[in-house]
Amino acid sequence: MPWKRSLNSLAMLMLMSSSIANAQSADSFKTAEYNEIGYNVLDAVNAASAYANGYTGKGVIVGVCDDPINFLVPEFDLKQNSEMINVAGAGVYNWANFTHGTHVAGVVAASKNGLGMHGIAFDAEIKGSTAGRIYYSDGSFESRKDLYVYYVQHPEIKVINNSWGTGCYLTNIDDNQAYELVQSGVLTPTGNPEWQDYLYNNTIQFREAVAHDKLLVWAAGNNGHTMASIENTSPVFDRSLSNNFITVTAGDAAALHRNKTGGFDADCNAIAIFSDLAQYREDCVLNAPGVAIGSANADFAAAGQMDVIRYGTSQAAPLVTGVGALVQQAFPYLGGKQIGDVLLSTANNQIVATDGFFINVQDDPGEGDNKSELKINIFVPPGGAALDIEKAFEKAYAENEDLFWGFYGIKLSDDKTNGKKSCTVNWMQMWKLMFLKMYRWRHCLDRA
Predict the structure, then answer these.
(1) Which of 97, 117, 176, 414 is nearest to 295 (CA)?
(2) For 74-219, where are the alpha helices, taking DSSP H only?
(3) Contact 360, 391 (CB under 8 A)
(4) Cβ proximity of 113 and 15 under 8 Å
């Protein structure tokens, strides 16, 4: 039976800049098109300041591994060198079913053309690779073994976005012998549990990309685990990958408030309610907005709607990839690992947890008639004060009822979790407060 993967996205609800003079003010870039990607999204990463300094992604090509991308939608009409480098199946797509890749690509580099929104690196070009070789009607797919071949052959492509994954986690692995094998660094191509063969095949591709100094940016996943999906944790098994992998968790830009120190006061819902976190990869994680992100609609021609709203770490990862494109433009001599170092070392980690905690919902497969088993995870920063767990949940729910109810069917009532679904509440100490890093352009892009 083929191993299938599904994309990391929660789909709910749904002027060209050929050269920019440094004299332009940051505020001049804060147009309706700038804001259309989502409230506070580009402001949270100081994008306008980067644009005012002339950094728009011009001259940079990024890789996007995902669904097929529809470059015929108006959001990409200024692109001169963007294309799909391979196809899935026969290469003829029903764009109503293949919306994910186009949305992700738009977050990276949709054109600044006065229509809808624009991507964070709006002047960059995109080379898209389909993550799947064969796609199925439920959205899952069989992975291809030549995912990065084109990128390896083109040294100018240094940053590659990966908003896909299995939804498999280290905690799912219960074969002790196989776990010990990968822990000891032994990966063999055949005769292992299915997940290990899958991991082996992926690791071969990852090793090749890293050997050519590509930076692989990964969406963490959307099941509310303390760790990211197994693709993100590949460096746990093969440490040679560590320096070229960045895991991206999702945040809610509306819950971030710039303070007088240049950092953020962060409400309890600042970590997106659905976001996987990054246990075991804490030193290589960034957080970017992934709640209510507007971007290009692949089915624009049939639907007549320019942009659609999506939620997910799939939307957070391309923001980091786009910032990587701006860094590459600013420092064209840097390799992929060095671009990653810039992103990690210049991120804003001055975060004040104003409510004293953060919260997410862990969604695992249930048993019997229960389609999912829900756990509410409450994270307290190191040194944080003791919490009244019940009151903490009530506060988080009051501020984020639409997502608690809309995503999970959790409705607060007299017994606190009664509704369409039931859940349990977990309390845990946050091991490192690294999930809410944002970008400080002043430091990131100042030239020596």
Answers:
(1) 117
(2) 100-109, 149-152, 176-183, 194-211
(3) no
(4) yes
Q: What is the pTM of this model?
A: 0.87
Q: What share of the chain in percent tops pLDDT 90?
A: 53
Contacts of 63 (CB under 8 A, 6+ apart): 126, 127, 128, 129, 148, 151, 157, 159, 160, 161, 214
Residue 211 sits at the vertex; the CA angle it makes with 242 and 151, to the nearest 5 degrees, is 110
Number of neighbours of residue 191 by Cβ within 10 angstroms: 7
Q: Are 20 and 56 in contact (CB under 8 A)?
A: yes
Q: In sequence order, what are the residues at sequence separation of 6 or more whose Cβ sits closer than 8 angstroms to the Cβ of residue 35?
A: 42
H or E segment to which residue 315 belongs = helix 313-330
Q: Is 352 exposed, middle or buried (0-12, 13-18, 19+ CB in 10 A)?
A: middle
Write out the two tokens for 14.
């749904």
Q: What is the pLDDT of residues 330-339, one digit of tens each?
A: 999 999 999 9
What does the alpha-carbon distance between residue 56 and residue 351 come to, in Å, rounded to a whole number?
27
CA distance 249 to 287: 5
Phi and psi of 208, rounded to 5°?
-65, -45
Token pair recorded at residue 441: 């352009």
